[in-house]
Amino acid sequence: MRVGVLTGGGDCPGLNAVIRAVTLKGIGERGWDVVGFRNGWHGPLTGSLRPLSPDDVEPILTRGGTILGSSRTNPYAEGGGTERILEVLAAEHVDALIAIGGEDTLGVAERLCREGVNVVGVPKTIDNDLGATDYTFGFDTAVHIATEAIDRLHTTAESHHRALVVEVMGRHAGWIALHSGIAGGASVILVPERPFSIEQVSGWVQSRFEREYAPIVVVSEGAQPDGGAEVLQTGEKDAFGHVRLGGVGQWLADELARRTGKESRAVVLGHTQRGGTPTAYDRVLATRFGLHAVDAVADGDFGTMTALRGTDIVRVPLAEATAELKTVPAERYAEAEVFFG
Ligand code: F6P
């Protein structure tokens, strides 16, 4: 059997751990040939692939990014994508694919599977917004990076009696802001799920100053003021129709300075949250997902995705995982609100 693996969408720490687990178990235990398609769905569309050997993958467990490259290529953006992929897989004698990705990559996997391609999905994204799994790998690392940044910003904010606004990733889901904000003792956490009142945020910031503390505001890039809109970096859309967000942190810092009369600064963590070596938690989760994806392929259980439920790895239908984004529930946000102001 010849099995292909690909990584699509925004990269995240732990992708290489999945590739390593799939390759070592696929070759060592199942006797398969394993190949890696380059740059997400661009690989199977164009026939760009490389064989993977144990020697290729042994050293990559701790390495961030993906040795296969990634892209936001959408085979359905133009006509003929499925036919082209089926032709390439037949020409390369690839029997099945393991697609590692988020909502977009796995949405494509789900549709391709309905159209005759043998695919098993593995969930990844720093945003942790994929349905049907308790966690995605990459999230824990991103939260660690953001928390470390918040810890550092506390001391400089205190020294200068300033408000510091930390903008973190999270287009439609505020998981990174929520977890890093709680872990980092933020004065306010703003998420896309809950439009905020700038008067209320300004009041919380003011009250923190009055108690002789420097406020830290953690804001998801997709958060928006009541009656306002997301702040965009550019209106340009990618192949899946996503605009580029960014700028809400600076907008908030300017507004807070104007309303409180105190100095405010904005820090955008951006892609530092996606780079570098994965945490031990993400290495283990990614490795377990890879091992279980091999079993799903061996069982012919296509159209499924590996998922974390409690401490178990289970299989769920790809359709269930991609049906809707997993956003922060109101009760989880309410837990954090106790610490605001
Ligand atoms: O992968 C998800 C994500 O990290 C989002 O949180 C963020 O909005 C987006 O990717 C950034 O994408 P790009 O790498 O294309 O700038």
TrEMBL record:
Pfam families per record: PFK (PF00365)
Chemical reaction(s) catalysed: beta-D-fructose 6-phosphate + diphosphate = beta-D-fructose 1,6-bisphosphate + phosphate + H(+)
Cofactor list: Mg(2+)
Keyword Cytoplasm applies: yes
Ways its activity is controlled: Non-allosteric.
GO biological process, one term: fructose 1,6-bisphosphate metabolic process
Positions of substrate binding: 125-127, 162, 169-171, 221, 265, 271-274
Site (Important for catalytic activity) residue list: 124
Annotated site, Important for catalytic activity and substrate specificity, chain positions: 104
Gene3D superfamilies registered for this protein in UniProt: 3.40.50.450, Phosphofructokinase domain
Subcellular location, principal: cytoplasm
Pathway: Carbohydrate degradation; glycolysis; D-glyceraldehyde 3-phosphate and glycerone phosphate from D-glucose: step 3/4
A GO cellular-component term linked to this record: 6-phosphofructokinase complex
Gene Ontology MF terms: 6-phosphofructokinase activity; AMP binding; ATP binding; diphosphate-fructose-6-phosphate 1-phosphotransferase activity; fructose-6-phosphate binding; identical protein binding; metal ion binding; monosaccharide binding
Subcellular location field: Cytoplasm
Cited SUPFAM superfamilies: Phosphofructokinase
Record-listed diphosphate binding positions: 10
Domain Phosphofructokinase positions: 2-297
InterPro entries: ATP_PFK (IPR022953), ATP_PFK_prok-type (IPR012003), Phosphofructokinase_CS (IPR015912), Phosphofructokinase_dom (IPR000023), Phosphofructokinase_III (IPR012829), PKF_sf (IPR035966)
EC number: 2.7.1.90
Binding-site positions, Mg(2+): 103
TM ranges: none
UniProt xrefs under HAMAP family: Phosphofructokinase_III
Subunit description: Homodimer or homotetramer.
Role of this protein: Catalyzes the phosphorylation of D-fructose 6-phosphate, the first committing step of glycolysis. Uses inorganic phosphate (PPi) as phosphoryl donor instead of ATP like common ATP-dependent phosphofructokinases (ATP-PFKs), which renders the reaction reversible, and can thus function both in glycolysis and gluconeogenesis. Consistently, PPi-PFK can replace the enzymes of both the forward (ATP-PFK) and reverse (fructose-bisphosphatase (FBPase)) reactions.
Name used for this protein in its record: Pyrophosphate--fructose 6-phosphate 1-phosphotransferase
Source organism of the structure: Prauserella sediminis
